[in-house]
Amino acid sequence: MIRTALTDLLGVEHPIVGFNRSPAVVTEVSRAGGFGVLAAVSYTAEELDAQLTWIEEQLDGRPYGVDLLVPEKTADAGADREDLVAALRAQLPAEHLAFVDDLLDRYGIPRLPVDPGRDAIAAGMSRRGAEAQLDAVFAHRPALVANALGTAPPHLVERAHDAGMAVAALVGTRRHAERQLAAGVDVLVAQGTEAGGHTGTIATTVLTPEIVGVAGDRPVLAAGGIASGDQMAAALALGAAGVWCGSVWLSSVEDVAPESVKRKFLAAGSGDTVRSPARTGKPARQLRSAYHDAWSAPGAPAPLPMPLQPLLTLQAWSSIDAAADAGNPGATELQSFFVGQVVGAFTELRGAGEITREMARGCERRIAALAGLVR
Amino acid sequence: MIRTALTDLLGVEHPIVGFNRSPAVVTEVSRAGGFGVLAAVSYTAEELDAQLTWIEEQLDGRPYGVDLLVPEKTADAGADREDLVAALRAQLPAEHLAFVDDLLDRYGIPRLPVDPGRDAIAAGMSRRGAEAQLDAVFAHRPALVANALGTAPPHLVERAHDAGMAVAALVGTRRHAERQLAAGVDVLVAQGTEAGGHTGTIATTVLTPEIVGVAGDRPVLAAGGIASGDQMAAALALGAAGVWCGSVWLSSVEDVAPESVKRKFLAAGSGDTVRSPARTGKPARQLRSAYHDAWSAPGAPAPLPMPLQPLLTLQAWSSIDAAADAGNPGATELQSFFVGQVVGAFTELRGAGEITREMARGCERRIAALAGLVR
């Protein structure tokens, strides 16, 4: 067992946080002695409520967390909540709608019927939209609430602390960290550029000690480039109190990603990702596909700000995923998902609990090996 | 003391390689128990010969190495060696010459007289030009010869092995590593994207274990993001047999960089670098300055291939450095040099020997601390 400020804070066995949108990954990580964190951004407020209920039933008191995306700056409509999707939809330029339509045509993607839930998820990536998710979270008992983008709003920190929950925040620069600390955040997640999802330009090797240097006694987790016990030991060597892993669970059997995208992940190399705003409107690392090449080709429109870009593209992604699962070759070329550079190390699908336990064991083995180098 | 396959191979005390263009950094690192490696690319063949003679006099048998840049693909002229500079100069487009001239004018940089030695250095960054450097190297007794870019030519590996020297190569992808191993290289340096100089896109946390996985029994060094004992311990945790450090010596008193650029380094943050082809013609990480912004502005010409871009700009860099040292504010805005993201951690200038010893001690302290986490 590895004891750090994080295992003390959360009351877990291993300083391994498993961030994923799949409820069964969250429960398997927590059951294996890690700390599962559900990505709320993939759900409407109603779905989130149901998922958290299920997770708590499974975990029977074991701790888990929730990760929200409450962005600081978004293209929010000045409308009330009932009109939010319509007001946002009215902001989508005709050029962008035509570009996405043409892209699907060129790759021969049959369209699924429009799913209002996908629009609601996109709208949730706005400051206003995220408020409904907050209410769903505080109707439950996560041990930790994280904010994935920007400084957590003061009422989030206050509500969480009042409810006895720790607050974490993902940071990509020292300045981010200083603002989060001033906002009262309890745990900083130093997310290196090699990470999947919304990420900055500074690598984990450099960012982690820099954030540790400003965090004082608050635990810092390293994120980005960590999918093995060796990488976990490296993160601890950099001064982290634990690791925040996202990508590795995409190689778990419990992950809800389409089988077709999991196959692409297993085949991908570490150089096959791209940091692009073409999916969410903010730079996020993803598996590079024909989709990103199209958005960066000459003449392509500039991606829209969050949440308009997700609103523009989420329905298209549903169609692409369904077509790829059905073997459509154009869809397979376009298909992508958020993933970090560690995707190059994926060789097989494993259980999320097994991944957790093997990472912890591997970390202990590596620490013992390091000690053996010293004469 | 930390014993690894690298300390065994090179007969050194610490698995720390110090790569730098300053002969006194090389000797101080080797004297402190590390392994100094001279960057030959900064010198003409004649200068290199003189530097290696000086280094060997200082070191009195202690081992050191040389790093060459023998590129695989360059815009070599079809001329013989005496005409190489002239033949290369004839390939510089008028648009590019005018762009550099205008840039210096806009920032008010007085021109130094043209230095033929700078042109010779630029020409040395060609396959033909590098041959003269090879001859200078093999007139001496380095314990290791490294090639910084692309696969080492077979005659380099052969001559080195015949002379009892180990051959190292810097790699940024698994495919690079496989080609280097096939070419008979003895030591692989996995260079992460956070490194200064010519670097790829994959971060050290991901690249190092990937290269270790294909290297078999040949030692792998981690490069990129390593300037402290903690970062060195992280590299060893990733499976490296040691570290190849470049940037950290730019914060040493012995480094020959202009005082003005050292001041910029001390003031810089970890987010202040850029990976750009605007200096050498190949993507290389540097301190970001007005120079890079000018080259990526709309209407700027595309950088030329190596060695034409260095030939185009090396005289300009001499003028910029001299003007910056004299306090010219425009020159200070333009000034830059190769450096990795660790530049954000530089707070003072120290002796290169002290840096080496402190890194080794810090690594041992961190390993002991890691062992203390295991219950």
UniProtKB/TrEMBL annotation, chains A, B:
Q: Name one GO molecular function term.
A: monooxygenase activity
What EC number(s) does this enzyme carry? 1.13.12.-
Return the Gene3D superfamilies for the record.
Answer: Aldolase class I
Q: Which UniProt keywords apply?
A: Flavoprotein, FMN, Monooxygenase, Oxidoreductase
Q: Does the keyword Oxidoreductase apply?
A: yes
Q: Does the keyword Oxidoreductase apply?
A: yes
Q: Which domain of life is it from?
A: Bacteria
Write down the InterPro entries for this protein, in alphabetical order.
Aldolase_TIM, NMO
Q: Which residues form a coiled coil?
A: none
Q: What is the name attached to this protein's record?
A: Nitronate monooxygenase
Species this chain originates from: Pseudonocardia alni subsp. carboxydivorans
